[in-house]
Amino acid sequence: MWVIGGGQFGKKAVQRLLRENPVIDITVVEKDPAQCRFFTGLSVVCRNQDAVLFLTENLFQEDVPDWIIPMVPFHLAFEWIKQALSPELHFVPLSVSEEIMRRFPNASRGGTGRFYTSLADFICPDDCPALDHVCTVRKKPRPYFLYEKIKTEILPGFHTIVIQSHQILPGIGGYRPAELYKAYHDIKNIREPILLSTACRCHGVVDIFKTCSY
């Protein structure tokens, strides 16, 4: 299992994973050596390396983990695919219109070409179990799973790709390498504008862009 990011949330993820299974195989990727020192003495390996560079160098090797747990403050899947395809394709962020924003719950703008969306208009507990159909905080049914909403929302002229974040433990979500591989190969062969999202049942980050050859 790769935990990408060894900051506050990465540390919590590792501690919870080890409590659940003390012999689990965990590699933490963290570019700050000071943060890496926290893991000294724990039964984990900490790689002092940039997250995107680590994935670029290791994700297409034979020895990949069952799960990748992103705990970095940026859209890891998008940044990795962008870097991995940089020898062939140029990524151009597209403006996010108000019409697009209105289609998704509690949408807020990020950087150019990026927005965030969430079923929650409050701060969720960091150990939320993400029950199947009921919000942990509101105790009411969810109207839908957000990853399905994004996947099925028709945006004319856009090709939509959703990488689903799966619940591993309360407050810890991740995806399998195969999901990243598929998104990588899809984007490599798509020439229309793309909406790429990583999303779980309640929260998502979305990048809107197009690619062009050099």
Give average pLDDT, whole number: 94
Domain module tally:
2
- Alpha-beta classification: alpha/beta
Described by strand count, sense and barrel closure, the largest sheet is: 6 strands, mixed
Which overall shape is indicated by the principal axes computed on the Cα atoms?
Answer: globular
N- and C-termini, Cα separation: 35 Å
| Unreliable segments of 5+ consecutive residues | none
The percentage helix is: 25-40%
Strand content: 25-35%
- Element string (H = helix, E = strand): EHEHEHEHEHEEHEEEHEE
Compute the number of helices: 7
- Tell me the total number of β-strands: 12
Radius of gyration, taken over Cα atoms and rounded to an integer in Å:
17 Å
Can you tag this structure with a few keywords?
7 helices, 28% helix, 214 residues, Rossmann fold, six-stranded mixed beta sheet, 12 strands, alpha/beta, 25% strand
Furnish the topology, listing elements before pairings.
Blueprint (H helix, E strand, L loop, with lengths): L1 E3 L3 H13 L6 E3 L3 H4 L8 E3 L3 H8 L9 E3 L5 H9 L4 E5 L4 H5 L5 E2 L4 E5 L27 H7 L6 E6 L1 E4 L2 E3 L2 H13 L4 E6 L3 E11 L1
Helix pairs in contact: 3-4
Describe the structure.
The protein has 214 residues and is of the alpha/beta class. The chain has two domains: 1-73, 3-Layer(aba) Sandwich (Rossmann fold); 75-214, no CATH class. Helices cover 28% and strands 25% of the residues. It is built from seven helices and twelve strands. The strands form three sheets. Strands 5, 6, 7, 8, 11 and 12 form a six-stranded mixed beta sheet that branches. Strands 3-2-1-4 form a four-stranded parallel beta sheet, covered by helices on one side. Helix 3 packs across helix 4 (76-84). The longest helix has 13 residues, at 8-20. It is globular. The model has no long low-confidence stretch (mean pLDDT 94).
